[in-house]
Amino acid sequence: MFELLKAGGILMVPIVACSILALAIILERFWTLRESRIAPEHTINELWRWIKKKELNSKKLKVLQGSSPLGRILAGGLMNAKHGREIMKESIEHEASQVIHELERFLNPLGTVATITPLLGLLGTVIGMIKVFAEIQVAGVGNAGNLAGGISEALITTAAGLSVAIPALICHRYFIRRVDALVVNMEQEAIKLVEVVHGDREIDVEGA
């Protein structure tokens, strides 16, 4: 593997660095964007039980706030529920914007890796072909070994760049869709909470 990287030339260094960064982000996001961590079902079920039994108090709100990102959003709304529907909704939206920002963390760098690694590979291709033509100009086409070295460098960097970019792009798209799905789920629960608190909706008996 080291010989292969060495044959690819100096541009293999940033490509390998990008691959390490992409792998770290992918593993971290897979761990972080779990539904059981972001919007656990037991959190909302427990909240409905507290509301139904009129056991909701400041202590339980703090527990809810620290339980999960969804709990943080719902607690933010409940803390201001007494000020009316609109203030409650604004509080939920404020907390939700911060949570969404955290969910999208590192996705821009991952998208950047997916974009620049093919360009680095292309640059390696260009440099490799420049070396090939420079060798032809100096020694002609008789030295096949030197020509093969330049062509090999060009092909290796191109393959390496694409090998990093393709999975990075796939994971970037997957995580964006994952965040969207989580946000929709949390939005539905927040709307339901506003309607329940202000008497426009009954608590689901099964959920409670």
Automatic annotation (TrEMBL):
Q: Where is the MotA/TolQ/ExbB proton channel domain?
A: 68-187
> How is the protein disposed in the membrane?
Multi-pass membrane protein
Mark the transmembrane ranges: 6-27, 110-134, 154-176
Which Pfam families does UniProt cross-reference here? MotA_ExbB
Instruction: Classify the source by domain of life.
Output: Bacteria
Localization per record: Cell membrane; Membrane
Assigned keywords, A-Z: Cell membrane, Membrane, Protein transport, Transmembrane, Transmembrane helix, Transport
Major localization listed first in the record, in broad terms: membrane
InterPro entries tied to this protein: ExbB/TolQ_transport, MotA_ExbB_proton_chnl
**Membrane as a keyword?**
yes
Establish whether keyword Transport is in the entry: yes
Q: Which PANTHER family match?
A: MOTA_TOLQ_EXBB PROTON CHANNEL DOMAIN-CONTAINING PROTEIN (PTHR30625:SF11), PROTEIN TOLQ (PTHR30625)
Which protein family is named in the record? Belongs to the exbB/tolQ family.
- Name of the protein in its database record: MotA/TolQ/ExbB proton channel family protein
Task: State the organism named in the record.
Answer: Marinobacter xestospongiae
| Lineage of the organism | Bacteria, Pseudomonadati, Pseudomonadota, Gammaproteobacteria, Pseudomonadales
